[in-house]
């Protein structure tokens, strides 16, 4: 019995020793209280992001100058049309009747003109023989001239009515693709003060453009000829490329946010890009090859209770927003290091100067149980 007791005690002692040995072996290093990332060398592209809408470079709105009911419709969405091709016909009956009435009126006026001309000729002969007064003669001649003017007016009215009749036939002014049809058979269109739009025709869908809204804080870094990479939701991660062709000077203000429209020219040889697609554009501001990079999360990390030290010199130094303090884990404690950063993207910033080198581990977050881990997207405010 006593021997069994000693065996149990020995087993318990061994288990306790094994537990404390396991705790000592698996205890985290002091530096594990911090989440770190390495400084590395690599390439960095500084970009400006903006959203925009894809549209054809040239879109022609086809309208009508006369009112009427759509009698015949010859084209539909996505149809390719040639210049001068028949698109639509309005009911011509009203305009044909007006033309017929004007032609009949002209015939009547010409008959009256012929009589007035004959009367003027007879009056001239009688005036030479002193059978009528000069006043009677001039009155007859004036009547003949008035009849001639009426003929000219009637001819002009016929020309106008014939033109209006021609306007009931709508033809394509350009060659292209019908991207919008605004009317249907039997619909009445009214051309009073504003010309109604019947069709929209894109001249060339192999050449598109993005109308991107760039914030006023970024527009100074956008230049004509600048490369633009973009994606559209329809093709996921497939990348497309364009070039800035115009920066419009007319600003747009929405909820006190000022943006400028930037036109980006895009080639679309395979027709993959469609009008109206939303483009997520990145304007390439600068490229940096083989530079020292630091994760942006390290730029925003500050230990609890840490305060920047003030310089002891009495002179005032010019404030440099690019000078930042980052922290390196040394002996389980965050060691502050001053660096100067340059260009940045969403993940990394370029180290322009400072003691850091490739392979150094910088602190990005505090992983202690009583600390909150924070994430950062893009470089923080310069302090």
TrEMBL record:
Species assigned in the record: Glacieibacterium arshaanense
Gene3D superfamilies on file: 2.40.30.170, 2.40.420.20, 2.40.50.100, Helix hairpin bin
Short name of any one Pfam family annotated for the protein: BSH_RND
All copies of domain Multidrug resistance protein MdtA-like barrel-sandwich hybrid, residue ranges: 58-196
Gene Ontology MF terms in the entry: efflux transmembrane transporter activity
Species classification: Bacteria, Pseudomonadati, Pseudomonadota, Alphaproteobacteria, Sphingomonadales
Family: Belongs to the membrane fusion protein (MFP) (TC 8.A.1) family.
Protein known as: Efflux RND transporter periplasmic adaptor subunit
InterPro entries with a match to the protein in the record: Beta-barrel_RND_2, MdtA-like_BSH, MdtA-like_HH, RND_pump_MFP
A Gene Ontology cellular-component term: efflux pump complex
Domain Multidrug resistance protein MdtA-like alpha-helical hairpin: from-to ranges: 100-168
Ranges of residues in domain CusB-like beta-barrel: 210-283
């Amino acid at each position: 019995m006593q021997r069994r007791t000693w065996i149990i005690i020995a087993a318990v002692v061994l288990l306790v020793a094994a537990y404390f040995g396991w705790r000592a072996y698996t205890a985290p290093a002091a530096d594990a209280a911090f989440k770190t990332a390495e400084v590395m060398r690599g390439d960095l592209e500084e970009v400006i992001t903006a959203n925009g809408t894809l549209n054809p470079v040239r879109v022609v709105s086809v309208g009508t100058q006369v009112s009427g009911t759509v009698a015949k419709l010859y084209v539909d969405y996505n149809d390719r049309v040639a210049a001068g091709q028949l698109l639509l016909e309005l009911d011509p009956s009203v305009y044909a009747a007006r033309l017929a009435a004007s032609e009949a009126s002209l015939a009547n006026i010409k008959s009256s003109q012929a009589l007035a001309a004959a009367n003027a000729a007879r009056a001239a002969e009688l005036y030479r023989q002193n059978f009528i007064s000069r006043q009677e003669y001039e009155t007859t001649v004036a009547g003949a001239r008035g009849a001639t003017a009426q003929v000219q007016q009637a001819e002009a009215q016929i020309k106008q009515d014939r033109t209006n009749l021609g306007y009931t036939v709508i033809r394509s002014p350009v060659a292209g693709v019908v991207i919008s049809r605004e009317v249907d058979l039997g619909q009445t269109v009214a051309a009073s003060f504003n010309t109604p739009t019947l069709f929209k025709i894109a001249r060339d869908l192999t050449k598109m453009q993005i109308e991107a809204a760039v914030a006023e804080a970024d527009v100074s870094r956008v230049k004509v000829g600048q490369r633009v990479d973009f994606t559209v939701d329809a093709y996921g991660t497939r990348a497309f490329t364009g070039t800035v062709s115009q920066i419009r000077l007319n600003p747009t203000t929405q909820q006190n946010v000022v943006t400028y429209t930037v036109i980006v020219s895009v080639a679309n040889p395979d027709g993959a890009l469609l009008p109206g697609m939303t483009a997520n554009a990145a304007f390439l501001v600068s490229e940096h090859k083989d530079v020292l990079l630091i994760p942006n999360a390290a730029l925003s990390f500050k230990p609890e209770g840490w305060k920047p030290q003030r310089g002891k010199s009495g002179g005032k130094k010019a404030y440099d927003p690019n000078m930042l303090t980052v922290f390196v884990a040394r002996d389980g404690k965050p060691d502050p290091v001053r660096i100067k950063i340059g260009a940045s993207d969403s993940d990394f910033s370029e180290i322009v100067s400072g003691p850091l080198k490739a392979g150094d581990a910088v602190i990005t977050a505090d992983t202690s149980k009583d600390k909150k881990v924070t994430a950062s997207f893009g470089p923080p405010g310069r302090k």
